[in-house]
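Sample entry copied in:
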Amino acid sequence: MLDVSPVLVGWIAAFLTNRQHAVKIGDIISEWRTLKGGIPQGTKLGVILFAVMTNDLIIDWPLRIKFVDDTTALEIIPRNSISLLNHVATDIHEFASTHNMKLNPGKCKEMFINFMHDHNILVNPIVLGNKEIECVANYKLLGV
């Protein structure tokens, strides 16, 4: 087991608790508000903490890719086989729920690429919670 210094744990806890946030547009700044949770975006420590929290996601499924705070699941479906991606998406959703994180199904996308001549392959839509994920023809993958 990794021995983490109590000083380091205290420093990270101080970084994550009672943080205040304001938005600035031009010369106008909003009121300061205390954040209720989450890891601050735009910080180097935020990226590291997210990677530590979600590292177990890539252990069980070799075609999961993490980039900063996004996760991508890939699948190659052999001819005459069924897709397992719905199970993978459910696994990611359950992992997030178990670790007090929330997925935003509105930001999740499915993209199906088929190089076979027979394009009549039936693939069930991916569902997270009770929401069907939008299937798109193109998508900007972060980090690529």
Observations:
- The chain has a mean pLDDT of 78.
